[in-house]
Structures are given as C-alpha cells and as structure tokens.
Amino acid sequence: MAGDTITSLSKRTYQVVVSATRSMGIGKDGKLPWSLSSDVKFFHEITTFTSDPDKRNAVIMSRNSWEALALDQWNCPLPGRLNLVLTRSVSSSIGTSKDVVVCGSMDSALELLATSPYCLSIEKVFVAGGDEILREALSAPGCNAIHITEIETNIECDTFMPPIDPTVFRPWYSSFPLVENNIKYSFVTYVRMRSSAMEALALNNGTTFDSSSPDNLKFGEKFSFLPEMIINRHEEYMYLKLVQDIISNGNHKDDKTGILTLSKFGCQMRFNLRKSFPLLTTQKVFWGDVSEELFRFINGSRNAKLVDVIEKVKNKPDDGRIVLSAWSPSDLKLMGLPPCQTFAQFYVANGELSCQMYQHSADMTLGVPLTIASYAALTCMVAHVCGLAPGDFFHVIGDARVCKFHISPLQEQLKRLPRHFPILKINPEKKDIGSFVVTDFKLMDYDPHQKIEMEMAV
Q1: One matching Pfam family, short form (predicted)?
Q2: Which is the catalytic residue, given 103, 143, 340, 355?
C-alpha cells in the first residue's frame, strides 16, 4: 500500500493510533489503566508492518508517553521503527540512538520527516500520544486516519483526548466486540472524509463548497494510504472473496432459466451494523431499489408475521423462536416463484438486535448486494422500534451462484478497492414499523465506484 503523503507545506501526513474509553479517557496516573495483550499486538503490527521491506515507519509521541513506555517495560525505543519524541526541554535525558529523534513540536517532526533521508526511508507516520499531542493531531488537516481501540467497559481515567468529529471522520472498519480480562472492546478505524467540519456544515446546509481547493479535497480516492492489514479487514471483502471463490472453484450448473452458472453450497457472510451500513461500494447499489424491496416486504402479506417478531423482541427477548418466515409450505405449490429468502431469525443480547437470514439460492452479482442492504436495513428498523441498537447481520446462502456471462464484469469489480460504508440514519420520531416512509431514512456519505453494466438473468 502507498505511504503517507507530503503536503504542499512540506509536512508528512499521519495516522493516529490510540486506546480510549467511551468518555475518551486514555490514562490514569500517567499509565494506561487497562491491560490488553491484543491491543499491544495491534499497536505493534500496525506501526511496524511496511509494504516495502527496505522502509520502516515512524512513531511520534510525547516525552511523557516515552517515559510511560519505559515504565510499562515496553521495548524502548520501539524496535523496527523511527521514534520521534516531542519535548521542549533543552536538557533531555531521552538518550541518543539511531532509532530516536528528539523534536520540539509536531510541526517540526512532520517537516523533518518530509526531508531527506526520511522522506525516502519512512513509509508511514503514526502519532501515539499523549493528550496534548492527540488534541493537536486530531484537529489538524494532516490526520488521514484514526485507529482506536474503543474500550466499552467503564474504567476511571484522569487524562482524556478530544472526541472524534463525526462530520470529518467516518468508520472504515470496526471489529466485532471482543472481551479480554473482563474488558469489552473493539478495534475501529476512522478515515478522514472532509478537510474540516466547515465543509460538512456547508454540504448539510446545501451551500456551495470549493472541494477543488487543495485544502478541501475529499479523501474518497485515497484510501490506499491505510495499512494493508486494515484495508484487508474491510467487510466488503467477504463478498468479494466469496465471488472470487465461486468463479475459481464453483461447480458448473444450469439454473432454472437454462443459463450456465458456477455455484458453491453453504456460504456465510457477517456484517457489523454498529458503526456503518453494508451497502457495497465496489459496484454502485441504488438505495431506491433497496428501499423499494424493503417497503414491499414490510407492507406486504407477511406484515402480520413482522408484528409478531417485534412483539417477541420487546416482551420475550430470550425466546429462541423469534423467526420471520417467508415460506408457507401449504402455499408453495400456488406460488409461481417462491421467495429465495426462506426465513430470518432475530436474536437479542447486550441491548443489541442481530439477525440471521437463510437464503436457499442467490444471484451473487445483482441480487445479493440488494439483499444484504435490505435485511440490514430491516434489522436496523426493528432494533429502532424496539429501543435496541443494531448488532450483526448474518447472511447464510445455500446455493450461491454466479452466471457465466457475469464473470467478465465481476473480474473488473474484483480489482476495485472498497471504500468506506455509508451510515444509515433513521427518523428518531418514528416508533411504529408500519408508519415509516422513504424520507424517514437518510443514507450519509455513500461514495461507491461507478456502476458496471451487468445483464440481468431472466
């Protein structure tokens, strides 16, 4: 993956790596008030790995952070990385080493890294704290991404970082919740979408904003600056890898229309609905098609079954039979084409609602992207009216198929780098599942690649 860029002011851009509680606490009594081996491993991997074996990364930190690393018995200096320690002290006791550089400020460190030999030998720049440096780093336009271990367990802190501005940064990746030492946490990466909150305000107010200015460029085309380990964790790769597996290893079959297909049996994808909404980005999915399918489902003949699901979610959340069936066995012979989505099961835990949907057969090219989005939206809607947060959406497919005449356009799609998923906002005033209209949903920051024309199988 590409390294960090050098701005017109001859400063390196950078990415922040930090652990913080929900209240943005990052320390207590000069130390990290939690111990997570997976967090330490993540910090090591993300700040050490380079795509070019002849380069290394740089880590910028305050003098207090440097001393805290030594107290916590970290390898100090951090091995395999250039350590830049910020201090205004004239007489520094940090010591001298080819792996340590002392700078007086963030600006001087970033300017130094933009000059030779560092501009040639340093691939990426990371900022690791402390609180004053994080405050400066997060408010500056040079911050491309934030990799944060979000601590969900309440832990007392006396040192804090500023909150992440949701009008400037959007989630790129969020791990599923993890637990270690009775501490619940998750790894989340946010990417810069706009140069400042001013641009977001202008866009929300419908006014013109000069996005062509070098200081106001959107970062939609520049996500290759992310570490490869983060790019590969994007959830869209579950879909892309399944498509590639079907093309490479699928069984040859004829479908009901006589069209030759490649097929794999027994597939599953899992999407995290906590931070973003899984509308695929490597091929444009039209939100109008998603909402049309969703409202047809809600307002159709199965609506009485959906009301029963909502009743159980609200009043019997531990019931193992919160199932929404699209099939009525007695009516199958009367149906010209039974629905491919056989049934969905809902699950309540930890204040969250998750859904697992079983689909007996699926067209991976055109049908599955719509189905992922429509059932993810349904899960968010049911969670909303039941006073819960959305959790996970599991998509289980029996017979996952790719039509052979779709292979060529799919191979073009497989070359594309996924972009950030959008965010789905639901009208907070609506609490009745039957009262929703299309305007009650707002899809924010959907920035997909251009549409690839694909013929529909009939």
Answers
A1: Thymidylat_synt
A2: 340
